[in-house]
């Protein structure tokens, strides 16, 4: 049983560019959450998707957007990249919004130069 | 507002000695609390969770944590450290209003041979 998978593993972009990160949830899970983890810090909640809709959003600007597909996979899009967007982006999946347990993928390391 | 504070950014212990990672929380409600572990280049893994049942919670790999409401603490312990325990540990509180996870800054556990 595959766990949460994310692609790509690493990514280097230039300021002002746009990036798309992808996540496939653990089999049977229907809820996907995205987090940003800056170096030396804990993860910060970006948003959560359930039934193809954004259900919750953290304190992130509109440059951060997402999507969930009918097969529950998800994308995170970041427009107009800033140097400060350099971080590890983590995807987590769970069964239902209210589930206590989230399963995390290994993350995508984004470097903005 | 709910928040969590990890009192030590780094903890160093010798292999075979006890581990104590400290966490304090602030919450208006009876909180749901978690400890996650992050090994280098691996995804976050749930160690244990407290969801208002028994105050002493046992997790994986010999770790346990005790919920103390009077002290607003949820410290993580292990009787005997192993080299494989070297990792970053995060204390997390869950907002019951919308199920968002609020993360501490993390404690890096270093195991000396």
How is this structure best described in words?
The complex is a heterodimer of chains A (113) and B (113). With 113 residues, chain A is mostly beta strands. Chain A contains no helices and 11 strands. In chain A, a hairpin with a 6-residue loop joins strand 4 (31-37) and strand 5. Chain A is globular. The termini of chain A are far apart. The mean pLDDT of chain A is 94. Chain B has strands at 3-6, 10-14, 19-21, 23-26, 32-38, 44-50, 56-58, 64-68, 73-78, 87-94, 101-103, 107-112. Chain B has a single domain (3-112), classed as Sandwich (Immunoglobulin-like). In chain B, the strands form 3 sheets. In chain B, strands 2, 5, 6, 10, 11 and 12 form a 6-stranded mixed sheet that branches. Chain B is globular, with a radius of gyration of 13 Å. With 113 residues, chain B is mainly β. In chain B, strand 5 (32-38) and strand 6 (44-50) form a beta hairpin. Chain B has no helices and 12 strands. Classes of the chains: A mainly beta (113), B mainly beta (113).
Task: Draw up the topology in text.
The complex is a heterodimer of chains A (113) and B (113).
Chain A: E1 5-7, E2 10-13, E3 19-24, E4 31-37, E5 44-50, E6 53-57, E7 64-68, E8 74-78, E9 87-94, E10 103-104, E11 108-112
Parallel strand pairs in A: 2-11
Antiparallel strand pairs in A: 1-3, 3-8, 4-5, 4-9, 5-6, 7-8, 9-10, 9-11
Chain B: E1 3-6, E2 10-14, E3 19-21, E4 23-26, E5 32-38, E6 44-50, E7 56-58, E8 64-68, E9 73-78, E10 87-94, E11 101-103, E12 107-112
Parallel strand pairs in B: 2-12
Antiparallel strand pairs in B: 1-4, 3-9, 5-6, 5-10, 7-8, 8-9, 10-11, 10-12
């Amino acid at each position: 049983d595959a766990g949460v998978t994310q692609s790509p593993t690493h990514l280097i972009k230039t300021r002002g560019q746009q990036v798309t990160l992808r996540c496939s949830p653990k089999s049977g899970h229907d809820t996907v959450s995205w987090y940003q983890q800056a170096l030396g810090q804990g993860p910060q909640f970006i948003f959560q998707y359930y039934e193809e809709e954004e259900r919750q959003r953290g304190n992130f600007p509109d440059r951060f957007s997402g999507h969930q597909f009918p097969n529950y996979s998800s994308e995170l899009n970041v427009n107009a990249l800033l140097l400060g967007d350099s971080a590890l982006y983590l995807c987590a999946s769970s069964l239902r919004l209210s589930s206590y347990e989230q399963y995390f993928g290994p993350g995508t390391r984004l470097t903005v130069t | 507002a709910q928040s969590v504070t990890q009192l030590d950014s780094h903890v160093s212990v010798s292999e075979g000695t006890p581990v104590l990672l400290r966490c304090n929380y602030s919450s208006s409600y009876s909180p749901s609390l978690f400890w996650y572990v992050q090994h280098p280049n691996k995804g976050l893994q749930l160690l244990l969770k407290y969801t208002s049942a028994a105050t002493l919670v046992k997790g994986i790999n010999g770790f346990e944590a005790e919920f103390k409401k009077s002290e607003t603490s949820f410290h993580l312990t292990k009787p005997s450290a192993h080299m494989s325990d070297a990792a970053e540990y995060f204390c997390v509180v869950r907002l019951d209003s919308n199920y968002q996870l609020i993360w501490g800054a993390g404690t890096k556990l270093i195991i000396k041979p």
